[in-house]
Design brief:
alpha/beta, Rossmann fold, 7-stranded parallel beta sheet, 8 helices, 7 strands, 3-oxoacyl-ACP reductase
């Protein structure tokens, strides 16, 4: 299927690895020019080189890397200094740490909200009017399956991402919708990324159980009986950015292998 977005410009955050990289790769393979952003310059540059060398990348599609912390005002300024206008924006930032809510002070909450709610809002605010003026725009916010099924130890994430979800529910249905701009959230479940591996390593350290045993238990709890792959997550993202998804806005698209058992 031709997604109809070749030649567009996309900003993909947290794109040096994991789900962000999967999204950048999928868009690039559709002929989209991609600006990838992450904090670690060395890993980011390596990712940019790998994406540029991807044999499935159309020769016309380019990759630009900006090493910056997108959750800061200075980081966002660095990105928009490279390019002001984008047709596609994929927001993504590492989730806050797990823990007991009794131990989180105001600073911990502000940091979580700043990264996982206010940063996406700032990126939306900076780009949607230009999208509307050109008659096409796609915002995809990478959030979490915990928005649908909250996890007790992820209170910081539940709160911050829940706030973003409420904001998107309203702004996506504003006048932007009639001007070709869609805003959707993409909710990952358990994907085979460094963050998942880190979590299992932490669980292994606390319980003394082998990582392989923890991995097996987690996979068996998923109807698909496996973890997701960043590449398939990227393909979903690319579709949401396509011309074919123009009638979808304000949605929370869950990709979790069937783990969430609710009807709605």
């Amino acid at each position: 299927m031709d997604l109809g977005i070749a030649g567009k410009w996309a900003l993909v955050c947290g794109a040096s690895k994991g789900l962000g990289r999967g999204c950048a790769q999928a868009l690039l393979r559709e002929g989209v020019n991609v600006v990838i952003v992450a904090r670690g310059a060395e890993v980011l540059e390596a990712t940019a080189a790998a994406l540029q060398a991807d044999p499935l990348r159309p020769v016309s599609a380019v990759v630009q890397a900006v090493a910056a912390d997108i959750t800061t005002e200075a980081g966002r300024a660095a990105v928009f200094a490279v390019r002001k206008d984008f047709d596609i924006v994929v927001t993504n930032a590492g989730g806050p740490p797990p823990g007991d809510f009794r131990e989180w002070d105001r600073e911990a909450w502000i940091k979580a909200v700043d990264a996982n709610m206010l940063t996406p809002i700032e990126l939306i605010k900076a780009t949607v009017d230009g999208m509307a003026a050109r008659g096409f725009g796609r915002i995809v916010n990478i959030t979490s399956s915990a928005v649908k099924s909250p996890i007790d130890v992820l209170g910081l994430s539940n709160g911050a991402r829940g706030g973003l979800t409420g904001f998107v529910a309203g702004v996506s249905r504003s006048s932007l919708a009639a001007k070709g701009v869609t805003i959707n959230n993409l909710l990952p479940g358990a994907f085979d990324t460094d963050r998942l591996k880190s979590g299992m390593q932490s669980a292994s350290s606390k319980t003394g159980q082998p990582i392989d045993a923890i991995r097996e238990v987690r996979m068996k709890a998923i109807p698909a009986q496996r973890f997701g792959h960043p590449e398939e997550f990227g393909a979903i993202c690319a579709f949401l950015c396509s011309v074919h998804a123009g009638y979808m806005t304000g949605q929370n698209v869950l990709a979790d292998g069937g783990a969430y058992s609710g009807t709605f």
